[in-house]
Each structure stands twice: as C-alpha cells, then as structure tokens.
Amino acid sequence: MKIIFAGVPGGGTSGWCKREEELTPMWAHRLWTYYWLIEDKGKMKKPHTVNLFLDSGAFSAWTRGANIRINQYISFIKKHKDFIDIYANLDVIASSKIIDQGRARRKAAEATLKNQKKMEEAGLNPIPVFHFGEPWEFLEDYVANYEYIALGGLVGVPTGMTIEFLDQAFANYICKSDGMPKVKVHGFGLTSLRIMLRYPFYSVDSTSWVVTGRMGGIYIPIYKNGKYVYDENSLKITVSNKSPSLQEKGKHLETLSPMLKKQVLKYIHKKGYDLGKSEFKKVELGYELKENEKWAEKKNGASDTRLVEVIVEEGISNKYQLRDEMNIIYFNDLQKTMQPWPWPFLLSKTAKLF
Questions:
Q1: CB neighbours (10 Å) of residue 20?
Q2: What is the DSSP code (8-state) at residue 24?
Q3: What are the two backbone dihedrals, phi and then psi, of residue 61, each rounded to the nearest 5 degrees?
Q4: I need a surface site. Which of 12, 161, 224, 318 has the fewest CB within 10 A?
Q5: pTM summary value
Q6: DSSP secondary structure code for residue 173 in this structure
Q7: Residue 95 or residue 283, greater confidence
Q8: Cα-atom radius of gyration of the chain, to the nearest Å?
C-alpha cells in the first residue's frame, strides 16, 4: 500500500514552497489539490524523485461554495503533464439542499461520470471517483472498465458506516470470489490504521501527518516485546509546550507515567530528534521579536501585554516543522510493515446497505 502525503507543510496554501523542497527526500508520494493551487496561484514545480497525485479539490471547492471549471482543469493538467503522475477526475459533490439524498447522489454520480467522459475525450486518463452513498451501478461500471479507481466522500462519515460501506464495496464489487481485488483502489482521506489493515487499498492519502503536527502532536508506535509494533493503534502524544492538553493527565508528554514518558523520549531520540526547551515571557504591545523568539499567543484587545516564547533549544516541542518530519517518518515506517498489494479481502457475510 502506498501512503500518499496530502496537506500543506508550510509557506502558502498549497503547491511548491521552500518547505516542500526541504521535505522532498522524506517522501516518495505526494498529493496536491488543483483547487488550492489555483486559489494560491501556486507555481507547479516538483523534482522528478516525487510521484505526484493531483486531486481536483472538488470537495474543498464545494464546502466554500465555489465551482471548478472542467475546461480549466483539463488545460491545467495538459500544461503541467510533465509534473503530474496521476490525476483524479473532477468529481461532483451531491447537494445537501436537496431533501431526497438518493436523488441528489444519483445526479452527482451522473455528473461525475459525464466529467470523466469529457476528460477522456480531451485525451486524458483520469482516475474515476465513486462516492459514499452513490448508486452501486456506478462503482460496478468503474471496476469493469478501469484499472485504477478512487473511493471518496468518506471524510466525516462515522467509522461504523465507513466500514459497512467499504465492506460492501470490496466484497461485492471490487474483489473477486477469492477476495483478490480486480482493480487498484485509492482511498481519499483514509489513513485510519483500522481501515488500512482491513482493506486491500493500492493507495491512500491523508493530511493526518501535518494536522497532528500543527496541533502539537506526534505519532508514536506501540513498543512491545522489545520492538515497535505498527499493526496496533499508535499513540498520538502532544509534545508542544503551548498545548492546552498540558493540563490534562495522559494527554501530553509531561503528564504521562514515568515509564511511558521514557519510552516516548527514547523513540524521539532514536529517530534523531530532541524535545527542545523554551522559556516564556510577557512583553508590552509593540514589542519587536528577537532571534529565536515567536509569539506564543494571539493579540488580545483587552490586554496590554502578550506572551512570547523564547526558544532555548530547538526541538519538537517548539518547532512544528520537526513534528512534521517525525510524523512523515512514522507513516513511512508504517508503510514498510504493511503487506504488499494485492492481498485478499473476504467476508463471511455481507450486508446490503443502499
């Protein structure tokens, strides 16, 4: 299974930035979103050492009430074809304003298929996208006519419903009678360990690595019988010294039991990183930051002072870039432990959902 890193490591909304270049040696597969590229007017630039997956960003556009013009999407792909290795169809999201969700999802599926055909007529070969809740006939058609497809529309769907949907999709449509997948399948936004271990996805993508880092956390594999175990739910430990979880027992590194804290620190050092050290001070408004200083809180109109963090020693507690790197390392290590694609998925009993 390929774990594709989505999300922005810093320096703008999306697209190429200095931080991308710094992190390039750490990842083999990257996902960029067309919607954010054009919003940010980002320049398309990447080294050929990275396999680039382009998503249309239809869901992001939909949540903001924006539209993506398919002709412009087609032109963008053609213009940057030397940089893009894989690209998804411009999918259409079902409108939440229509009371009859079944009808809305069918209309969205039909519009998505229309975009698929239009892109193909333009000489492109996009990956078709099937969404949660759409009529199964569309998935059946994609499996019959394509070698690589994608499943989407699962962000925000409860885990139980996601598993029921994926059980039916893989058991009844994607996999043969022996459980082996007929096609390669990409899962948008699906790096839940439970999901990745249960289904034979060819690839998945997620922003978990960068979102967790921005929230002050890092992933830590379970340590058992003298080795790190990746086929069990990992620990997500907050290490930022500004995090509210510092006050919650068992949520932050400093509130862990002495034994667990020792194990976490051992893992951090084993991966070549340090915890770091900061000091904090209150300054008057108008204060100019010095080298190795940054604001530790936003401006408060009711206060005449503001908190500054003074970085004494750089580390994962005071630099989100280092947390990003540790999370990339975690997912790369996880990927190495997973069984190679393809492998069988079998259910003794399947449930009809829609």
A1: 23
A2: G
A3: -65, -45
A4: 224
A5: 0.90
A6: I
A7: 283
A8: 22
Residue 351 has pLDDT above 50, yes or no: no
Q: How far apart are CA 295 and CA 307, in angstroms?
A: 6
CA distance 36 to 66: 12
* Amino acid at the residue 146: Y
Q: Is the Cβ–Cβ distance between 314 and 303 less than 8 Å?
A: no
What does the DSSP assignment read for 68-97?
--HHHHHHHHHHTTTT-SEEB----PPPTT
Burial of 300 (0-12, 13-18, 19+ CB in 10 A): exposed
130 near 110, Cβ under 8 Å? no
Output the CA–CA distances (angstroms, integers) from residue 178 to 172, 182, 338, 342, 344, in the order listed.
12, 10, 20, 12, 7
> What is the rounded distance in angstroms from the CA atom of residue 352 to the CA atom of residue 349?
10
Question: What's the pLDDT tens digit per position in 126-163?
Answer: 999 999 999 999 999 999 999 999 999 998 899 999 99
What is the C-alpha to C-alpha distance for residues 304 and 283, in angstroms, rounded to an integer? 9
- Paired with 342 in beta bridges are none
- Number of helices (H) and strands (E) in the chain: give both, helices first: 11, 15
CA torsion through residues 226, 230, 234, 235, sign: positive
Task: Check if the beta carbon of residue 4 is closer than 8 Å to that of residue 53.
Answer: yes
